[in-house]
Design a protein that fits this description.
Its EC number is 5.6.2.2. Its cofactor is Mg(2+); Mn(2+); Ca(2+). The protein is an alpha+beta fold. It has four domains: 215 residues, Heat Shock Protein 90 (2-Layer Sandwich); 160 residues, Ribosomal Protein S5, domain 2 (2-Layer Sandwich); 183 residues, Rossmann fold (3-Layer(aba) Sandwich), CATH 3.40.50.670; 34 residues, no CATH class. Helix content is 36%, strand content 20%. A hairpin with a 2-residue loop joins strand 19 and strand 20. Helix 2 packs antiparallel against helix 4, helix 2 packs parallel to helix 5 and helix 11 packs across helix 17. It starts with 25 loop residues before the first helix and ends in a 9-residue tail after the last helix.
Length: 637
């Protein structure tokens, strides 16, 4: 894919419009002004370097978080052109860094495909940074320019000689724009691990240099997306070797890797020009259609299997246990929004259907034993889906006969607006009783759960629907459950709190509930509706003062501050030990409560963690506990 270096020149940087609106309306360009938008700034700069790699001119990218939350991105690509731009009569570096929609991505002779914001990215990063400096290593010289909130602080200067080549960008986000300027190393690590998987052989080095004991990760995967699928299925039992093929049509390149395991959840990641499309899009639609058609074609050829499954398999039947990575490269991608969560090019569906069908048909013809294993898995899924449908129908009929759709143990609130309503999922009847008495009945509902719910990681939907506690929870939430029924718009509460005891059993129940939401109600997490309540661990009384503390560290610091004063320390092990007034004051009062919002910053890491903690494999769970035991703050043995 390598192109001659002369193909990327100053004349190819096309100018579309200026930078004026960016600082006034940053959300239009970067999506959000919270930590999501903050991290997007880094991705946009790195995407330019990855574009160089896709064009065959870059083999290594270094990303560092420096002290004071400054980001440095360095690559060994060709470097931004430094010549005077023919239209603007200034250095092309300044054009790229200060003019919106100026870049090499509008003409296909510079980059055949690219990620990023199509020329918007680096100029927007510059506009939204308190300070930024760029260095270009090119033709034996180091060219540098500095900016303040997008404004050049002088011309491009040659500041030295070099034998290297590439581009270095350092920027400090503007605290007056973003709600936070604190970068999360784990969030960045997740994105750049993905990029390394998607770009076979490209080395990405990510470092956090804010502390003396700096963290560092180095990613390079010679297996590309095959390595990605193997990584995702590392702690599962795969049914076959990874199916992998790469095909192209009409300037669209599609690379696909698929592997079924003995698990019950679907795990598909979609990418367009290295951009993660969380909501899928036309490439996913084409893939699903081809997978369904091709597997049904091969089902018809196997008379033994036809006896087990006389009717055609549906798309739902093929989802159970599948792990897939779909990566497409498109010259002119179109997305649903600036955040690029969904690919919308209409023509891609048909192209993907053709390419996927060809690749799968060839593999299935050459590997009949694998084909049969996959079909047998899908047939079991079809039978379980039918059983789940009957279980749902039975639940509905039972609700009608009992004269109501809501579970009897739910103490509902009087508020009917979901946006103003809260649901507390509480461990046990004792704590549930205190919560019901202590709550604000106007907008707070209480649902006590008896014991531990089913581990959904090890069960199909039909068995899950047979669990009384889960049926109760689904009924209370109002969303339904399962791909064909779940509807986030029917959620009865826009704040759902998991409230369990601060002991081993409480932690287990919390993990079981989190697993359930992650596997079967992920949109509740994605919408920001799910929280974990944080009841206090200690009540310390000294004199007439009572103070609630939420960790051992807080307790130790507080006792130290008291000096020689005598204090009575009460350690709470269960919510039931608090009376209703204490539970309201510490855990349910919006003015005082401490809660953790459940977020999905890293889908890959979340998938792996839930599989380790709740799956069948013991050894990975043991290793996980050994590695993370030291990080546990409050553990009752």
């Amino acid at each position: 894919m390598s192109e001659p270096e002369s193909s990327y020149s100053a004349g190819q940087i096309k100018i579309l419009e200026g930078l004026e609106a960016v600082r006034k309306r940053p959300g239009m360009y970067i999506g959000t002004q919270d930590e999501t938008g903050l991290h997007k700034m880094v991705y946009e700069v790195v995407d330019n370097s990855v574009d160089e790699a896709m064009a065959g001119h870059c083999t290594e990218i270094n990303i560092s978080i420096l002290p004071d939350n400054i980001i440095e991105v360095k690559d060994n690509g060709r470097g931004i052109p430094v010549a005077i731009h023919p239209e603007k009569n200034i250095s092309t570096i300044e054009v790229v860094m200060t003019i919106l929609h100026a870049g090499g991505k509008f003409e296909n002779d510079a980059y055949k495909v690219s990620g990023g914001l199509h020329g918007v990215g680096v100029s927007v990063v510059n506009a939204l940074s308190e300070s930024l400096e760029v260095e270009v290593y090119q033709n034996g010289k180091i060219h540098q320019q500095k900016y303040s909130r997008g404004v050049p602080q002088g011309p491009v200067n040659v500041i030295g000689d070099t034998t290297e080549r590439g581009t270095v960008v350092r920027f400090k986000p503007d605290a007056s724009i973003f709600t936070t300027t604190e970068f999360h190393f784990d969030v960045l690590t997740s994105r750049f691990r993905e990029l390394a998987f998607l770009n076979k052989g490209l080395k990405l080095i990510v470092q956090d240099k804010r502390k003396s004991d700096s963290e560092k990760h180095e990613f390079i995967f010679d297996g590309g997306i095959v390595s990605f699928v193997e990584y995702l299925n590392e702690n599962k039992h795969p049914l076959h070797k990874t199916i992998h093929f790469e095909r192209n049509k009409d300037d669209v390149v599609a690379e696909i890797a698929i592997q079924y395991s003995d698990t019950y959840s679907e795990n598909i990641f979609c990418f367009t020009n290295n951009i993660n499309n969380n909501l899928g899009g036309t490439h996913l639609e084409g893939f699903r259609a081809a997978l369904t058609r091709t597997l049904n074609d091969f089902l018809k050829k196997d008379q033994q299997l036809v006896k087990k499954q006389p009717t055609a398999l549906s798309g739902e039947d093929l989802k159970e246990g599948i792990t897939a990575v779909i990566s497409v490269k498109i010259p002119q991608p179109q997305f649903n929004s600036q955040t690029k969560e969904k690919l919308v090019n209409a023509e891609i569906k048909g192209i993907m259907q053709t390419l996927t069908g060809e690749g799968l048909s060839l593999f299935f013809e050459e590997n009949p034993a694998i084909t049969k294993k996959i079909l047998e898995k899908c047939i079991l899924s079809a039978k379980a889906r039918e059983a789940a449908r009957k279980a749902r129908d039975l639940t509905r009929r039972k609700s009608v006969l009992e004269g109501g759709g809501l579970p009897g143990k739910l103490a509902d609130c009087s508020e009917k607006d979901p946006a103003a309503s809260e649901l507390y999922i509480v461990e046990g009847d004792s704590a549930g009783g205190s919560a019901k008495q202590g709550r604000d009945r106007h907008y707070q509902a209480i649902l006590p759960l008896k014991g531990k719910i089913l581990n959904v990681e090890k069960a199909r939907l039909d068995k899950i629907l047979g669990n009384e506690e889960i049926r109760t929870l689904v009924s209370a939430l109002g969303t339904g459950i399962g791909e064909d029924e779940f509807n986030i718009d029917k959620a009865r509460y826009h704040k759902v709190f998991i409230m369990t005891d601060a002991d081993i059993d409480g932690s287990h129940i919390r993990t079981l509930l989190l697993t359930f939401f992650f596997r079967y109600m992920k949109p509740i997490i994605e919408k920001g509706f799910l929280y974990v309540a944080q009841p206090p661990l200690y009540l310390i009384k000294h004199g007439k003062t009572s103070t609630y503390l939420f960790s051992d560290k807080e307790k130790d610091e507080y006792l130290k501050s008291l000096g020689t004063e005598k204090a009575v320390i009460q350690r709470y092990k269960g919510l039931g030990e608090m009376n209703p007034e204490q539970l309201w004051e510490t855990t349910m009062d919006p003015e005082k409560r401490v809660v953790l919002k459940v977020k999905l910053d890293d889908y890959v890491e979340a998938e792996d963690t839930f599989n380790i903690l709740m799956g069948d494999e013991v050894n990975p769970r043991r290793r996980f506990i050994e590695v993370n035991a030291a990080k546990v703050a409050n553990l009752d043995l």
